[in-house]
């Protein structure tokens, strides 16, 4: 995996000129937090490459608990037991997105509040950003690769400033044969979605051509896919987190070995946007009570978002706020 390397001297010296160059209090807070957490080289990668890898974010306890909770969800969906280490195509074929995991287990709010990824997400989306969704792209052997795309808006309105950002936690090892994430360094600067010919191909056929054939699972498993030009396979370990700008192109290999690839994807957006998952869910008061003294949790769950009133009208008490700039 190719990553930008920064010297310790450059890393230590970067915050001072950045802080001196801005009068934005929110940006200063964010940069100070990034510096304190030792993430300055990650910030450089994020700016230049459109993504960065933060190593060993999750403890082994959180990895184990998250994997177990996701596996419980999958097994309840398919109504059978799945061995995550030895599963075959017959046990679980291809990829299925397991949605709305936040309230499935107490480990998920804990992971949501991990300080290192959140510091970088704040840089991309501001301190007022909200959680759009939290789920798992659970992948067994076979199926198709995940098509290359940018998470930003699909209507062509991609801007330099991110409107959304993604944090992808590896809960099992990532490699090509294990169904790893692939990402395109620098693609966030293109500010557009990839074309069919910049996506996965097999011989002279595009991903769309193969999908149009409606092949059987056995036939799909025999298709040999070519990694798109410019893509990097993310060979990372459980507990590592990949954070990327919403414009950054990414996709995923098909899994070609027994077992399962398990991740946790925390997807964030600016507060003016509609979230993928409905916020304001009052069915889990015990979770909100647990984090009653953590204002960050309330913000991420949309509790502080100014818009969204009913007949009571807007809240001008200061309990709900709107950002004044890119970083607050």
Helix and strand layout, with pairings?
Layout lengths: L7 H6 L1 H6 L4 H12 L3 H10 L1 E4 L5 H19 L16 E4 L8 H6 L2 H11 L4 E10 L6 E5 L13 E7 L10 E3 L17 E2 L2 E2 H7 L3 H5 L10 E2 L7 E5 L3 E4 L10 E7 L15 H6 L4 H6 L28
Antiparallel strand pairs: 1-10, 2-3, 3-12, 4-11, 5-10, 5-12, 6-9, 6-11, 7-8
What does it look like?
The chain has 328 residues and is of the alpha+beta class. The chain has one domain (40-271): Jelly Rolls (Sandwich), CATH 2.60.120.620. It has helices at residues 8-13, 15-20, 25-36, 40-49, 60-78, 107-112, 115-125, 207-213, 217-221, 285-290, 295-300, and strands at 51-54, 95-98, 130-139, 146-150, 164-170, 181-183, 201-202, 205-206, 232-233, 241-245, 249-252, 263-269. A six-stranded antiparallel β-sheet has the order 1-10-5-12-3-2. Strands 4-11-6-9 form a four-stranded antiparallel β-sheet, with no helix packed on it. Strands 7-8 form a two-stranded antiparallel sheet. The longest helix is centred in the first third of the chain and has 19 residues, at 60-78. The relative contact order is 0.20.
The main pleated sheet reads as:
6 strands, antiparallel
The assigned CATH architecture is Sandwich
Given helix and strand content, the structural type is alpha+beta
- Annotated CATH homologous superfamily: q2cbj1_9rhob like domain
| Tally of alpha and pi helices | 11
Shape: globular
Give the CATH level 1 class. Mainly Beta
Strand order of the largest sheet: 1-10-5-12-3-2
Helix and strand string, N-terminal first?
Answer: HHHHEHEHHEEEEEEHHEEEEHH
Cα gyration radius (Å): 20 Å
Number of strands: 12
Helix content: 25-40%
- How many angstroms separate the termini? 33 Å
Structural domain count: 1
| Mean pLDDT over the residues | 92
Q: Low-confidence runs (pLDDT<50, min 5 residues)?
A: 1-15
Query: What is the fold-level CATH name, i.e. the topology?
Result: Jelly Rolls
